[in-house]
Design brief:
This protein is of the alpha/beta class and 286 residues long. The protein folds into two domains: 116 residues, Cobalt-precorrin-4 Transmethylase, domain 1, CATH 3.40.1010.10; 122 residues, Methyltransferase, Cobalt-precorrin-4 Transmethylase, Domain 2 (2-Layer Sandwich), CATH 3.30.950. It contains nine helices and eleven strands. The protein has a six-stranded mixed sheet with strand order 5-1-4-2-3-11, sandwiched between helices. A five-stranded mixed sheet has the order 6-7-10-8-9. Helix 3 packs parallel to helix 4. It is elongated and about 60 Å long. The two termini are 38 Å apart. The model has no long low-confidence stretch (mean pLDDT 91).
């Protein structure tokens, strides 16, 4: 088995014995200082970095080797202007077969609502070595920077990671379960359907001790949190459009934010992560 634990003083190093290979790594949810030391070391050695949109430009500008090739692959929820996954797969294979060390850099964690499986299948089919490095997922980052303990004792039994991007995604029986559970519900990639999400939970008689927090551009200087009781949301923010990325936390724990928030809402209306341009391809950074 390949030794993956390297002495931090032994740079440069070759994780695949001098051959090409792929590091699939999580960059965290926004704040560049949430990047792990292990990913930082690989970025300093990588020949090629293929990055998603939700990766801080600070990481790309300051932590990547200066002569590395950086490819921007997009990935903005279901937007058709993102680089198709099959092209990303082809790039991973192409550069690694050239003997290059490739870092596939994803926002948040690599295995939570990402296309990790597609990329692993492509690498496996082509007998390419790889390593998977976790990152801080958006749920944990957003909750921490909003002052919300996801599984606070006496407030939540567990936490569920979900996504809701179309109204027929869940059967009615599951909506009843979601409305009545004591678990904290965290919805990724669901800000466009927040109104419908709340309506379904209210229809299924969610308890009035539950709160919602919509966390916009979490862990960045542009972070904003919209927080209230689930029964107050329609009066306060129904019809709101949130900047991407936004994450939704629903449960008793979301009511703790008022007490434990430590980061004030930003006054900025700017995007931290630039939206994808129409007809975007995997672009090379000059």
């Amino acid at each position: 088995m390949r030794e993956i634990f390297q002495n931090s003083n032994q740079l440069p190093f070759s994780p695949f014995g001098g051959k090409g290979g792929v590091i699939i790594a999580g960059a965290g949810p926004g704040d560049p200082e949430l990047l792990t030391i292990k990913v930082l070391r690989y970025l300093q050695e990588a020949d090629v970095v293929i990055t998603d949109r939700l990766v801080s430009e600070v990481i790309l500008d300051q932590y990547v080797r200066k002569d590395a090739l950086i490819l921007h692959a997009g990935k903005q929820r279901s937007k058709g202007d993102s680089t198709p996954q099959f092209i990303i797969n082809e790039l991973l294979v192409e550069y690694s077969l050239q003997g290059k060390l490739v870092v596939r850099l994803k926002g948040g964690d690599v295995s939570v609502f990402s296309n990790l499986l597609d990329e692993l299948n492509a690498l496996s089919r082509n007998h390419i070595e790889y390593e998977i490095i976790p990152g801080i997922t958006a749920a944990c980052g957003a909750a921490a920077y909003a002052g919300i303990p996801l599984t606070a004792r006496n407030y939540a039994n567990a936490v569920r990671f979900l996504t809701f991007y179309k109204t027929d995604l869940f059967p009615e029986t599951y909506w009843k379960d979601l409305a009545q559970t004591e678990d904290t519900l965290v919805f990724y990639m669901s800000s466009d359907t927040t109104d419908e999400l709340l309506e379904k939970l209210l229809e299924n008689k969610i308890n009035d001790d539950k709160y919602i927090a919509v966390i916009e551009q979490a862990t960045t200087p542009m972070q904003k949190v919209y927080n209230c009781s689930v029964y107050e949301y329609s009066k306060k923010w129904k019809g709101s459009k949130y900047k991407s990325p936004s994450l939704i936390i629903i449960g008793k724990v979301a009511g703790l934010r008022e007490q434990f928030q430590w980061l004030p809402n930003s006054n900025s209306n700017e995007y931290y992560f630039k939206p994808i341009q129409k007809n975007a391809k995997a672009e090379v950074r000059a």
